[in-house]
């Protein structure tokens, strides 16, 4: 009863418009393959995202950047050559009042990627920032030594939560949406998503299935609402052409989802070169996950990088296809999903088709990772993989989705 009262009391709070993210840290002690995971399901008003590689700091790094940010002034999640990785979720219950200056989360994450090696380094970076810090975020970080932590960070202070602390994280993982556990409970946002994610993580942990694929597939494409318990899979339409809509607000995937990254770290004494960033550019409902590895030769799939338009091709395609899912005009149209276009019993829904495309990428990726961890990979092999991804994804998308030919 108390849980229900808390949910109802917060109902109108999370109906407010918000920049929403769902994030997690999982200790390598609890994952399927013994490697830590850092997860960010990014919701933002900046729907065009791209991958960028940088060499403007002490360490080289890659990360997700808004396409409108031509120089990469802000980074919204990524990792560097030491195996240090970072992401964030905006928090709306930390600072009692606004300080009158834009918040600096993206700039701080860029700074961290430029110079940090360990979780402790990031803590020292926060300690060194002038106050107020102009921050209101849950920063999640992992390093190549197996450490991981959230830092609930406001203008003047932060609170650290260690993912390897069995009291703080008894099942080896920590979750954050858009509130901080040490913040004002009356201002919590993202509660519906938190409730749904918590249930999924608890179940996955109980059957030892916490993995990168669980995060970008099962969590980021979850179609159950955390409060109403409505599972859209239970309403899968028979007819792919059915013009009927379902309410689609406060699910983990949202109209405003712009990208998903899952950074799979390394085991202790394993080279940080094996760190993998699974990158889902665009809406997870209409795109595929592609792994990238930081490398000196800057070999990355071009479908994730900005082209002559300034946008990443895969993000462009995802957004164009997404229009079939949200065809209603006006601001309120973003809250209504044409379900038959997403999933149907004929297996021709957009998310069903991208799952087929993604499966082949996962098979090739596993082969690539095996070669890397056995020390049998060379720069030309990374280039060959990127070239294959570009050709395969481009061909499959244009063969499958007629809207891209228009």
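^ Assign residues to that structure.
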């Amino acid at each position: 009863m108390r849980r229900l009262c808390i949910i109802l009391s917060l109902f109108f709070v999370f109906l407010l418009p918000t920049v929403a993210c769902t994030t997690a840290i999982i200790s390598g002690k609890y994952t399927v393959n013994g490697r830590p995971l850092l997860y960010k399901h990014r919701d933002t008003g900046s729907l065009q995202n791209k991958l960028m590689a940088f060499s403007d700091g002490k360490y080289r790094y890659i990360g997700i950047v808004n396409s409108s940010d031509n120089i990469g002034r802000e980074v919204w999640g990524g990792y560097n050559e030491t195996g240090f990785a970072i992401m964030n979720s905006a928090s709306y219950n930390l600072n009692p009042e606004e300080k009158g200056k834009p918040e600096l989360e993206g700039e701080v994450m860029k700074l961290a990627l430029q110079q940090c090696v360990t979780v402790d380094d990031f803590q020292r970076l926060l300690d060194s920032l002038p106050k107020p810090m102009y921050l209101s975020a849950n920063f999640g970080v992992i390093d190549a030594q197996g450490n991981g932590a959230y830092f609930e960070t406001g203008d003047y202070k932060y609170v650290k939560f260690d993912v390897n602390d069995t009291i703080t994280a008894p099942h080896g993982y920590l979750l954050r949406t858009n509130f901080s556990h040490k913040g004002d409970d009356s201002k919590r946002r993202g509660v519906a998503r938190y409730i749904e994610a918590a249930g999924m993580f608890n179940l996955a942990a109980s059957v030892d299935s916490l993995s990168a694929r669980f995060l970008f597939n099962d969590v980021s494409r979850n179609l159950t609402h955390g409060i109403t318990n409505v599972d859209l899979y239970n309403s899968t339409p028979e007819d792919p052409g059915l013009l009927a809509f379902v309410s689609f607000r406060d699910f983990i995937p949202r109209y405003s989802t712009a990208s998903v990254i899952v950074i799979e770290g390394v085991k202790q004494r394993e080279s940080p070169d094996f760190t993998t960033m699974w990158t889902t550019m665009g809406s997870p409902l209409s795109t595929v996950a592609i792994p990238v590895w930081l490398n000196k030769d800057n070999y990355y799939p071009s479908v994730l990088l900005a082209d002559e338009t300034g946008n990443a091709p895969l993000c462009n395609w995802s957004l164009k296809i997404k229009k079939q899912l949200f065809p209603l005009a006006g601001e309120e149209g973003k809250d209504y999903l044409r379900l038959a276009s997403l999933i149907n019993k004929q297996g021709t829904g957009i998310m069903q088709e991208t799952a087929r495309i993604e499966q082949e990428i996962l098979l090739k990726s596993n082969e690539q990772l095996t070669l890397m961890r056995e020390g049998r990979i060379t720069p030309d092999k990374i280039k060959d993989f990127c070239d294959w991804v570009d050709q395969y994804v481009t061909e499959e998308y244009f063969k499958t989705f007629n809207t891209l030919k228009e």
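Residues 22-405 form a domain with the Penicillin V Acylase; Chain A fold (CATH 3.60.60.10).
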